[in-house]
């Protein structure tokens, strides 16, 4: 019986045929790369798909060559190649046979998709900026300049600390914009803040630190990263002045604390000046390390940003910054500004090569910073987010004047305070509107004492511009009515 | 006494002055951002640099405003800001003072540079390709297309598996070029092979695997990565047919093996067809996992590349590929092609966010592959490296016919075999010529039995084109003479 097989492009070609193991075998010798390569491909495919069963004896090279109208050497070469690849076996006296193990790939055993395919209509969840505003053209311009100017060695493995061009640009920028005091040698570039935190956690653990203070409200996955590194998180109460750092005092063994001083996540308050000085005092008294997560320090609306805590005590604070809020999380670029005494340990971990970070985006970001494009982008995003914040505040003042909104001086989110007992229902009502939004309680540390604070974290930075009014409407519809 | 301070740009400006704590204080109010921002900056700088000592009482806002010719509110605002940042303290009755902890940053305590600054004149060490040949223009073209076409969500956090555009392009490319059998869902993108190996090691350890076979000659840092993950490396003898995989048999508990089948590193041989089938048999018998490091599979000179082992047994082989040899290590891009049963565990680790990988280069590589630019680049590099190999072989045939060169059918390096007892001296003689080159013995596993094999690993892919003749000359001068 004559058969023919579909070509990869979907068409059907008349293919040269031969008899193998008593059955006709059609081999499609079309495609790029000459007849020898095509024969190898066709035989490999026939074995792979199961058309040539394991153990089947192939015709001699002379006979197949005659069938296909090819030179005998071409066929012998192809057989040799497939023997080398393990598809066929060649034994003295038993000819060339299909190898036993070349079974076709079993169909995927996964029946469930790896991620839920559902996506909410409207999204006010925290964690990402408005990624639709990524400055594609300006970024490409910077990439072109950076790639043209880069020395060849920039394309090599690098040294684990990150490109010096970017570390230099960051040292300048952070001094100027955030009051950070450093030199490029104390900056380590990372593929995202979580990676930096993982590195730090391991380094602190190696120093014998077993516990770290964390804020009683915060991001789960940050605290899990710290836990994975072997440090137990000890929650500090977060109140209207930020984390109660005085709770660090007198806890022996507690020599590290993870804070969001400029804009507490998620409650949105700044760490009170007294507490800023108190935590720095604590660190210098006990030889402790403050990890300062400055995730959205660029975005402050009502006055100049609060400077980094790091500027007060560079030898006790690790400053962590990222492009995830200012540009895009997809870049996976973050930086640690380290006290001198931690640089060596962090670089030792980086030298393992397990935590890499592409050089090209580093070079591009350096150019983006030094050319002023970063400042321009941040300024324009600050205006855009501020406008959204104002819209949110105005809409709430008009339609839900009974609810208090806080944490609005900075950042990409606000806290909409809710009457006790209404948070869960409100999140559910929002879901009915197609709106994904997170309740405050999901950010509470599991071993922090219960409070009656309830609210929504409204991440007004997340939606694209064109969707924002729709998002606001959905939010308003979901809110609990005045008593 | 009147003083003035240098501006950041290096010029000297006449600055407004005032008296603070009995001394003249000059504040440079030039620079961007308005007089309020400038005053904050200037005061912060004065505290930071120690010009304003801790505890110093500042003039009242009224008096400083008069001195500087500013509105009183401007000064009061600036004080407020610096109190918020922790530079100053304001207490009822004691006025505004410089905070106690704002000490200037101590000079760096590191006295040694972090890396040796010495770089050899000529470099034949393994590990990197000719990075001077990175296709900058073609890459930028692909980046422009990729960034224009990317959906907004590509700039978000992503799912830990890597961009679907690249996984799809790779599934096609690897099937075509390397005989790999997979679908995009079983590919996980990593920031370099080492990261992939670290992930795999952890996953295997979690499965209860405690030992893994490794080749008796190989890369130290690969074996260290496996060890860090908690797996003991058990060396398999490498001979002229590759790793003796038969040594896996009968070792209980050994259910993983790390191999370089296409081109053993560093000895340069291909795994013998019998051993390819034997190792796959072993894996299916014991439920083992073969980790196939296909680091330079694209570069084979004398015939079609040996197909990937993975194609024989997709459910037992993890195929690992990278752009480090084909494009540039600086990209930090690699991929794992996983058996179905390992995908979930690897993604679970990736979901921690500690191992990130920038999306922009992933999108660009996808475009680079699908547009054919990758094939063009590999083809041109294959010609270039082949020319170098031919030059090397010809030079050795002429000037050192007493030495055998092997492992030259593929890849970016050859093995120059040396008489017993001469390797160490030859490496040292090369160093005197300004040539960095590695001896074979430094790649031997520490618990592998000693052999009398000695040689140089000549990574002819490393130098830039223009330096290659100089490198060859230096190498020839360092070689031991014929007996």
What does this entry look like structurally?
2 copies of one chain form a homodimer. Chain A has 3 domains: 5-98, Orthogonal Bundle (Arc Repressor Mutant, subunit A), CATH 1.10.10.10; 122-129 and 376-478, Aspartate Aminotransferase, domain 1; 134-374, Aspartate Aminotransferase, domain 2 (3-Layer(aba) Sandwich), CATH 3.40.640.10. Chain A is 36% helix and 15% strand. Chain A is built from 13 helices and 19 strands. Chain A has helices at 34-48, 61-68, 72-85, 136-149, 164-178, 193-206, 220-228, 273-286, 340-350, 359-370, 373-399, 423-432, 468-478; strands at 17-20, 23-26, 88-91, 95-98, 122-123, 187-190, 211-215, 232-236, 238-239, 242-243, 254-259, 289-293, 317-322, 334-337, 405-406, 414-418, 435-436, 438-439, 454-458. In chain A, a hairpin with a 7-residue loop joins strand 15 and strand 16 (414-418). In chain A, helix 1 packs across helix 3, helix 4 (136-149) crosses helix 10 and helix 5 (164-178) packs across helix 10. The longest helix of chain A is centred in the last third of the chain and has 27 residues, at 373-399. At the A-B interface, helix 1, helix 3, helix 4, helix 6 and helix 7 of A face helix 1, helix 3, helix 4, helix 6 and helix 7 of B.
């Amino acid at each position: 019986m004559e058969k023919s097989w579909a070509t990869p492009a979907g068409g059907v070609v008349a293919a040269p045929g031969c008899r193998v193991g008593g059955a006709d075998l059609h081999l499609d010798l079309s495609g790029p790369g000459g007849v020898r390569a095509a024969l190898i491909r066709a035989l490999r495919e026939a074995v792979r798909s199961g058309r040539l069963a394991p153990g089947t004896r192939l015709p001699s090279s002379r006979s197949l060559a005659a069938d296909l109208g090819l030179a005998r050497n071409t066929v012998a070469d192809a057989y040799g190649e497939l023997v080398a690849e393990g598809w066929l076996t060649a034994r003295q006296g038993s000819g060339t046979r299909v190898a036993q193990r070349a079974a076709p790939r079993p169909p995927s055993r996964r029946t469930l998709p790896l991620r839920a395919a559902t996506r909410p209509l409207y999204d006010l969840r925290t964690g990402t900026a408005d990624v639709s505003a990524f400055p594609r053209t300006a970024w490409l311009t910077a990439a072109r300049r950076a790639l043209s100017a880069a020395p060849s060695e920039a394309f090599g493995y690098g040294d684990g600390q990150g490109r010096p061009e970017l570390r230099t640009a960051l040292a300048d920028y952070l001094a100027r914009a955030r009051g950070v005091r450093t030199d490029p040698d104390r900056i380590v570039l990372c593929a995202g803040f979580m990676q930096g935190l993982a590195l730090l956690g391991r380094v602190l653990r190696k120093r014998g630190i077993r516990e770290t203070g964390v804020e009683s409200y915060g991001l789960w996955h940050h605290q899990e990263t710290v836990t994975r590194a072997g440090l137990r998180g000890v929650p500090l109460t977060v109140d209207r002045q930020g984390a109660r750092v005085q709770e660090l005092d007198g806890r022996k063994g507690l020599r590290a604390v993870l804070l969001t001083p400029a804009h507490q996540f998620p409650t949105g308050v700044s760490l009170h000046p007294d507490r800023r000085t108190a935590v720095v005092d604590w660190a210098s008294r006990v030889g402790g390390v403050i990890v300062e997560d400055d995730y959205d320090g660029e975005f402050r609306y009502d006055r100049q940003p609060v400077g980094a805590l790091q500027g007060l005590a560079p030898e006790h604070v690790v400053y962590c910054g990222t492009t995830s809020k200012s540009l895009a999380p997809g870049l996976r670029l973050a930086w640690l500004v380290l006290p001198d005494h931690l640089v060596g340990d962090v670089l030792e971990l980086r030298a393992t090569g397990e935590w890499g970070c592409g050089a090209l985006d580093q070079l591009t970001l350096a150019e983006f910073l030094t050319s002023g494009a970063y400042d321009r982008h941040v300024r324009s995003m600050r205006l855009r987010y501020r406008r959204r914040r104002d819209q949110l505040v105005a809409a709430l003042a008009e339609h839900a004047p009974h609810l208090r909104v806080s944490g609005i001086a900075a950042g990409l989110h606000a806290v909409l305070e809710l009457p006790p007992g209404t948070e869960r229902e409100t999140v559910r009502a929002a879901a009915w509107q197609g709106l994904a939004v997170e309740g405050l309680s999901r950010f509470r540390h599991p071993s922090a004492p219960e409070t009656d604070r309830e609210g929504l974290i409204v991440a007004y930075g997340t939606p694209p511009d064109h969707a924002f009014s729709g998002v606001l409407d959905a939010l308003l519809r979901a809110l609990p009515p005045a008593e």
